[in-house]
Specification:
The complex is a heterodimer. Chain A is an all-alpha fold. Helices cover about 70% and strands about 0% of the residues of chain A. Chain B is mainly alpha-helical. Chain B folds into 2 domains: about 35 residues, no CATH class; about 230 residues, MetI-like (MetI-like fold), CATH 1.10.3720. In chain B, about 75% of the residues lie in helices and about 0% in strands. Classes of the chains: A mainly alpha, B mainly alpha. Chains A and B meet through helix 1, helix 3, helix 5, helix 6 and helix 7 of A and helix 2, helix 4, helix 5, helix 6 and helix 7 of B.
Chain lengths: ~290, ~325
């Protein structure tokens, strides 16, 4: 009863939702249309004679051209021959960051979820406080640090800071997953004489797999998203550049090759979009479970 | 040596637990120390030196408060700080409002909610830089969608380059920042709304409370803890927001979109003035720290006076 709407309310809800989603998706739609339009069409303003105003049809003409094609998706590999390399770098960097960050996140999250110990609250707060410092604030010493170890212009220059800035969020997320695994299971293992490490490996980890996957995917998406800053400051080597930094090569020379740039962008976000599509239900449930306490 | 081992040897069960827990946390803690805590200290130290590209290896000289005097006394500093806060308040405010509207819509009892929910997420999961390339094209003066659209509607009578003028560049950057930040806020608000006990609504409904009344008197107070913590998190991230402004305008035109973070980056990385840049970074940390403390204590005050459960436990 309570959740029934009148027709007018229903229309209102759908209309507002449509507007909301239009705002969220408009850039992607426009990117896709631009990627299909030939460059000459992209760079032709709707023809409006001097002194006259643009009509609706003039405006609509910008969305359609007879020569629309997927040509840009072929040409972009020629314009920027390094493109496959950039996409590979992006995926590789994110995978590496995910792997290393999970190595640090899993044991720490387990400790926070399971034990009461001295300094628990304080250290957890300190971990979370790291969120206050964006990478941009720490760039100078990080630059010096990486330079000292000779890691500038290597994959490590982007992996190490990437890992560090994801660890706090990861611990926080995984902790709320692990807290849901009943403690009795562990006690039973203890009673049977299992060591702590054995329990962690054989009892907890198998049960935690769904949580681990969600946190891992969240880390991957996070790593994919945050590459830009570290890439432009710590890496000058084009062989190691991730896609967001590499896409700048479409800008420059003479014109901006908008159609190819948009095509490359869309191809570049495909990995994360696909992962998100498959995982979105679990991901959304997992990400928000820590935020809502009963 | 054996004495040391004696001390380290756990004596009670609680000590064993503490030791084991810390052993598990140690690797993560060490990484944080290496990549965040030490650099933070180093930033602080550098902010009192004249470090630049030339002195990077030979060692810089201690210059006392000179960098701070120059930074704070600088002609542009007051306007940069004001702009940064204006940027933060406006953007966070819009994200909260849009997020609340979006979450309420997605929480309503309609068909295909799951699909709508998934459609809201892309701006958040796609790399910020790539989303910004899309906006760069949208804001294009001659060929961009928005410029063409407002010309068609009759607001302008020619091309309008959004990123070329001081005012419009600033607000365009805000729109993009809101676009990127809203999905996450929406998602967390939605989860909070769905966590509100159903019987509260039913009781109110039986008593004849309107939808708006139920939203105002049940939903809002119930999700207030989430709103409050999201607002703080969002404020910190927005304050630190770098990529959006950098890709859209690089802080221009004529400094119109230069926030503290952009100013820090420009000084340190582009002009290689590491000391002066570090000073700005320290100021960012200080300002954010003060802001967070003030925010939380004001909330506490409100909490005591009005009994809102302001901060999440």
């Amino acid at each position: 009863m309570m959740d029934k709407y009148t027709l007018l309310q229903k229309i209102g809800i759908y209309f507002s939702l449509a507007l909301f989603i239009l705002f969220m998706l408009l850039p992607f739609v426009e990117m896709f249309i631009a990627s299909l339009r030939p460059l000459t069409h992209l760079f032709s303003r709707p023809d409006v004679p001097l002194g006259e105003t643009m009509t609706f049809m003039d405006f609509m003409s910008r969305f359609y051209s007879e020569n629309m094609s997927f040509q840009a998706y072929r040409d972009m590999w020629v314009t920027v021959p390094q493109l496959p390399r950039y996409i590979f770098n992006s995926v590789f960097l994110s995978s590496a960051v995910t792997f290393f960050s999970m190595c640090f996140i899993v044991p720490a999250a387990y400790a926070y979820a399971r034990f009461n110990f001295r300094g628990k609250t304080l250290s957890l707060t300190l971990f979370l406080a790291v969120n206050m410092f964006s990478g941009a604030v720490l760039l100078i010493p990080l630059y010096k640090l990486l330079r000292m170890y000779g890691l500038l212009n290597t994959y490590w220059a982007m992996i190490i800071p990437g890992v560090a800035f994801l660890i706090p969020t990861g611990i926080w997320l995984l902790k709320s997953f692990l807290e849901k695994i009943p403690y009795e299971l562990e006690e039973a293992a203890f009673v049977d004489g299992a060591s702590r490490l054995y329990t962690l490996r054989r009892v907890i980890l198998p049960l935690a797999v769904p949580g681990l996957i969600v946190v891992g995917v969240a880390m991957f998406i996070g790593a994919y998203a945050q590459q830009f800053l570290f890439a432009i400051t710590f890496n000058q080597n084009r062989d190691y550049m991730p896609l967001p930094a590499g896409i700048f090569e479409f800008i420059g020379y003479q014109d901006v090759l908008w159609n190819e740039m948009m095509a490359a962008s869309l191809v570049g976000i495909l990995p994360v979009l696909l992962i998100f599509l498959f995982m979105q239900k679990h991901l959304i449930a997992g990400l928000t479970s820590g935020a809502v306490k009963e | 040596m054996s004495n040391l081992l004696q001390i380290l040897k756990p004596k009670t069960k609680a000590q064993t637990t503490t030791l084991f827990a810390w052993a598990l946390i140690a690797p993560a803690a060490l990484v944080m120390f290496w990549i965040v805590v030490w650099p933070l200290y180093e930033t602080f130290r550098l902010s009192f030196t004249n470090s630049n590209l030339g002195t990077l290896m030979s060692g810089a000289d201690y210059v006392g408060w000179e960098n701070y005097e120059k930074a704070i006394g600088g002609r542009k500093f007051p306007s940069i700080v004001t702009r940064t806060f204006y940027w933060m308040f406006l953007s966070v405010g819009l994200k909260m409002i849009l997020g609340l509207i979006g979450a309420s819509l997605l929480a309503s009892n309609i068909r295909a909610r799951g699909i709508f929910r998934a459609l809201v997420m892309p701006p958040w999961i796609v790399p910020i830089a790539i989303g910004c390339f899309g906006w760069l094209w949208l804001y294009n003066g001659h060929f961009g969608l928005i410029s063409n659209f407002i010309e068609m509607v009759g607001i302008t009578n020619g091309p309008f380059s959004f990123l070329a003028y001081k005012q419009s560049a600033f607000y365009s950057a805000i729109v993009t920042d809101v676009w990127i930040g809203t999905p996450m806020v929406t998602l967390f608000f939605l989860a909070a709304i769905q966590g509100v006990p159903k019987d509260l609504y039913e009781a109110a409904y039986v008593d004849g409370a309107s939808r708006w009344y139920r939203f105002r008197r049940i939903t809002l107070p119930q999700i207030m803890p989430t709103i409050v913590s999201m607002a703080l998190l969002s404020a910190i991230w927005t304050f630190n927001s770098f990529e959006i402004i950098w890709i859209l305008t690089e802080g221009g035109p004529r400094g119109a979109t230069t926030t503290l973070i952009i100013d820090t980056f420009k000084t340190a990385i582009f002009s290689y003035k590491f000391g002066a840049g570090a000073t700005r970074a320290v100021l960012v940390v200080l300002i954010l720290g003060v802001f967070s403390v003030v925010y939380l204590s004001v909330l506490n005050r409100l909490n005591q006076r009005y009994g809102y459960s302001g901060v999440q436990k």
